[in-house]
Automatic annotation (TrEMBL):
Belongs to the enoyl-CoA hydratase/isomerase family. It comes from Gandjariella thermophila. Transmembrane segments: none annotated. This is 3-alpha,7-alpha,12-alpha-trihydroxy-5-beta-choles t-24-enoyl-CoA hydratase. Residues 18-147 form the Peroxisomal multifunctional enzyme type 2-like N-terminal domain. One of its GO terms (molecular function) is (3S)-3-hydroxyacyl-CoA dehydrogenase (NAD+) activity.
Length: 286
């Protein structure tokens, strides 16, 4: 049985120890398209060692950074084909600004599995602590496994964020490169869905799609640059649902609604009549 919720839900995965260097951070930022204007001092803070700062979304990739094998969707009670899987949701809460280099360990558990009939939504939570044992960040994510529902589980929540009934306060445009996914995969997600046209076709897409976590990082950076004066330390958390695919080379349009310590947003694809990309998305700030 590909999914056995009685085994999977609550399962703890082996603790992951990981470390990263400034070079990893530089590559991550380049993988998001940073450095397009190398004369902009703010932009240099992402792509040059001097005054380097770290986008908090780096935390979600740090544990597997540099992996060279495709990910496996295999945990206690779950064993499914990578081609059926899409990244469903991602959130991170940062407990301290991420250092430009460091080591940490993370505990990961399968928090829940929702049965959407045509799909299963597998929810993971992780807690990362630094070398001294102090909380570093917490993540919550889900994978959407097409064709894996119908195991008799509960349906789980629907998307829910209500946007204010007014025009957005700002709109941010983020171009992506045609080779964006080929660059981004060097950060540690070698899923062939993002590089191999045959694999993408077998998964139901006309061409390779962009990593969800690439769009997630691109949008977080746009928010930091556009609304927080380029200061990554002001981000307390960022969460979003992946509502539709992005093809490398497309331009992302992010509409934002600001309130006291939260920024609500949606992201869409300019070239495809604002087809949705991120929904239920919230940036929390200090
Ligand atoms: C261990 C390592 C594992 C590997 C991890 C992944 C590795 C990565 O390389 C993979 C990727 O990066 S894939 C790229 C990023 N993700 C995407 O592009 C997905 C974009 N979203 C979609 O295509 C559709 O929304 C889609 C297809 C997700 C859903 O669309 P539909 O099938 O039309 O579904 P819909 O009818 O709208 O909704 C059905 C029920 O599902 C819930 N739901 C929808 N989208 C969801 C999402 N993104 N996350 C979680 N739940 C979601 C809906 O709420 C609905 O449930 P209910 O009826 O109860 O409300």
């Amino acid at each position: 049985m590909p999914i056995d919720p009685s085994v999977a839900i609550g399962a703890e995965l082996p603790e992951v120890e990981f470390s990263w260097t400034a070079s990893d951070v530089l590559l991550y930022h380049l993988g998001l398209g940073a450095g397009a204007d190398p004369e902009d001092p703010r932009e240099l803070r992402y792509v040059y060692e001097r005054d380097l700062q770290v986008l908090p979304t780096f935390g979600v990739v740090a544990p597997t950074f540099g992996a060279t094998e495709p990910p496996r969707v295999s945990f206690p009670g779950v064993d499914i084909d990578l081609a059926s899987v899409l990244h469903g949701e991602q959130g991170i809460t940062v407990h301290q600004p991420l250092p430009v280099a460091g080591s940490a360990r993370a505990r990961i558990r399968i928090a829940d599995i929702h049965d959407k009939g045509k799909a299963a939504v597998i929810v993971q939570e992780s807690e990362a602590v630094d070398g001294a044992g102090n909380p570093l960040f917490t993540t919550r994510s889900s994978i959407f496994a097409r064709g894996e529902g119908g195991f008799g589980g509960h349906r789980g929540p629907s998307g829910s964020t209500t946007l204010p009934d007014r025009d957005p306060d700002a709109e941010l445009l983020s171009p992506t490169l045609p080779q964006q996914a080929l660059l981004y995969r060097l950060c540690g997600d070698r899923n062939p869905l993002h590089a191999d046209p045959d694999f993408a076709a077998a998964a139901g897409f006309p061409r390779p799609i962009l990593h969800g976590l690439c769009s997630y990082g691109v949008v977080c950076k746009a928010l930091v640059d556009g609304l927080l004066k380029g200061d990554t330390a002001r981000v307390a958390g960022f969460s979003a649902r992946f509502a539709g695919v992005v093809y490398p080379g497309e331009t992302l349009r992010t509409r934002v609604w600001e309130s006291d310590d939260r920024i609500l947003l949606t992201t869409s694809v300019v070239e495809r009549d604002d087809a949705p990309v991120l929904a239920d998305a919230v940036l929390t700030i200090h």
